[in-house]
Structure prediction request, 125 residues.
Amino acid sequence: DVSLESASFSECTAGNWGGGMYVTSSARGDVALERARFVRCTSPQAALYLNGIERLALTNSHFVDNIASQSPAALFFTSSVATSDSLLRNTTFFGNSAPGNITILAASPLTWDCPLGSWMPNVGQ
Prediction:
């Protein structure tokens, strides 16, 4: 498991995935980020790249001005257990840039608490 509070990733650059943070299935377990900030990270794909983890809890976090040469710009998420226990809560995305203007790509179920309703597509802008 990975758990971070108040982590800040600013002006990070990656040659592959995850301009700020990359976690792969070999890590086994959950990823919990509280009050994380991903600002001006640059990578081929996503400021936060989570591939094959079990569950994600991303709360009170911000993704601002991240740039990716492939979609998505801010968050890529896929779960090894494909449950619906993963969530985004009170997390904002602003000024992120990738081809197709895709900010989030969730290849596994992801609940996004939205004050305007509960709609959340697999691919978000």
